[in-house]
Specification:
mainly alpha, 98 residues, 0% strand
Length: 98
């Protein structure tokens, strides 16, 4: 389980970086990175992260570069960071159990 979470976090950091960059000018990249993060979050049961990715995927090409798109990318990042922290906490508690 530890490796699964670490891989999710490593890949997620890359997806979030791609989302933030693409939110400025690249709609296909924006959607692709969101879709990848949504899928990996579903595999771990991170429903809130999956939901926010799905909401961001609903943005249209004309939204790229807008404040709405940038705010959505920031929300994805925030939820990803909270999800990662919760997963780290769960791992720490699991390791601490006798």
């Amino acid at each position: 389980m530890h490796d699964l979470i670490r891989n999710f976090q490593r890949d997620g950091i890359q997806h979030v970086a791609r989302i933030n960059e693409a939110a400025e000018t690249d709609y296909p990249e924006f959607r692709e990175a969101l879709h990848a993060l949504k899928g990996s979050s579903l595999e771990l049961g991170a429903q809130r992260l999956s939901d926010i990715c799905e909401q961001a995927e609903a943005l249209k090409p004309y939204d790229i570069g807008s404040d709405t798109c940038k705010k959505m990318a920031a929300q994805v990042q925030e939820v990803f960071l909270k999800t990662s922290a919760a997963l780290n906490n769960a791992l720490t508690q699991d390791i601490a159990k006798p």
